[in-house]
Write a structure and sequence with these properties.
The protein has 270 residues and is α+β, with helices and mostly antiparallel strands. It is built from twelve helices and nine strands. It has a six-stranded antiparallel sheet with strand order 1-2-3-4-6-5. Strands 7-8-9 form a three-stranded antiparallel sheet.
Length: 270
C-alpha cells in the first residue's frame, strides 16, 4: 500500500482504537520510517485532522536525542498520518514482561532519560498524554520516547469506557484524565510515576480486572510505597514516585525536576 504516493506501508507494528502504526519506506528518500495512520471516519471528529497536524508540526520542532523525530504530517484519502523515525529495539513493556523488574540503577537511568525527554516535549508546548512502558523503546543503551502528542487519538475519547480503554493505557492514566479532563504536563509526570513503579517492582501502581476498575483506583486509592514492594529502592526514589502519583496535579514535581533527582540518585554518592 502506497500512502500519498510516497510512503510504502510494509508491516503493521502497532494498533489502537483509531490509529495504526506501520513500518514503512519513504520511496523519495529511500529510507525506513514509521507512519502512524489515523482513520478520521472512525474518529468521528471533524477537527481531529487539523489538531493532529498542529501537534505534529510542534513536535517536529523538538530536538532531543531521546524523543522520536517527526519528519512529515498530512491528511489524505480520509486519514491523517504522521511520519517518524523508525526506531529499532524492544519496548519497555516487552522487556518487563519477559525479564521482570529492572535492576534499580537501570530503572533509574531509564526513568531519568524519559523525564528529560518529557521536559523537552513540555518546553515545546506538547503534552504526551500516554506515558507508559509500551511507548518507551530501548535499543542498546539508548532510550527513545515515542508516540507523543498524537497519542491523544486513542486516549482522549476513551477515558472511563470499558470497551474503549485498553488496560495498558488505564494503568498509566492520571486521575484527571480518568475524569475526562484535558491532560497537562502534570498528567505526563503521573504516567512516568506509573512507569517507574512498573519498571522497579514489576507491576503498575494499581491493578484490577477491568480498565474501568483500574481507573477508579487511580481516582480513589493512595499510591503504593515502592519500598514496601522492593526493599532496595532508595527512600528518595520512593518519596519522589509517590509525589509523582499525587492526586492533585499541582502537587507533582515537573518532569525536569523528577529527571534531575532520578539522575542524581542513579549516579550515587560522589
Amino acid at each position: 500500500m502506497l500512502l500519498t504516493g510516497r510512503y510504502e506501508l510494509l508491516r503493521r507494528i502497532g494498533a489502537g482504537g483509531m490509529a495504526t502504526v506501520w513500518e514503512a519506506r519513504d520511496t523519495v528518500l529511500d529510507r525506513p520510517v514509521a507512519v502512524k495512520v489515523v482513520d478520521l471516519a472512525v474518529a468521528d471528529d471533524p477537527a481531529l485532522g487539523e489538531r493532529l497536524r498542529r501537534e505534529a508540526v510542534t513536535a517536529a520542532s523538538i530536538a532531543h536525542p531521546d524523543v522520536v523525530t517527526v519528519h512529515d504530517v498530512g491528511v489524505a484519502d480520509g486519514v491523517a498520518y504522521v511520519v517518524m523515525t523508525l526506531v529499532e529495539g524492544r519496548d519497555l513493556a516487552a522487556v518487563l514482561q519477559q525479564d521482570g523488574p529492572l535492576p534499580v540503577a537501570e530503572g533509574l537511568r531509564i526513568g531519568a532519560r524519559v523525564a528529560g525527554a518529557l521536559a523537552a516535549v513540555h518546553a515545546a508546548g506538547v503534552v504526551h498524554r500516554d506515558v507508559k512502558p509500551a511507548n518507551v523503546l530501548l535499543h542498546g543503551s539508548d532510550v527513545t520516547l515515542v508516540d507523543f502528542g498524537i497519542a491523544s487519538v486513542d486516549t482522549a475519547q476513551a477515558a472511563l469506557t470499558a470497551a474503549g480503554t485498553v488496560i495498558g493505557t488505564a494503568h498509566a492514566m492520571s486521575p484527571e484524565q480518568a475524569r475526562g479532563e484535558s491532560a497537562t504536563p502534570a498528567s505526563d509526570v503521573y504516567g512516568l510515576g506509573c512507569l517507574l513503579t512498573a519498571a522497579l517492582t514489576g507491576a503498575p501502581p494499581f491493578e484490577a480486572g477491568s480498565a474501568v476498575a483500574v481507573l477508579q483506583r487511580h481516582l480513589g486509592d493512595e499510591p503504593p510505597s515502592l519500598r514496601a514492594r522492593r526493599a532496595d529502592v532508595p527512600e528518595a526514589v520512593d518519596r519522589l514516585v509517590r509525589s509523582m502519583l499525587a492526586k492533585d496535579p499541582a502537587a507533582r514535581p515537573t518532569a525536569a525536576d523528577a529527571g534531575h533527582l532520578l539522575a542524581a540518585v542513579a549516579q550515587g554518592p560522589d
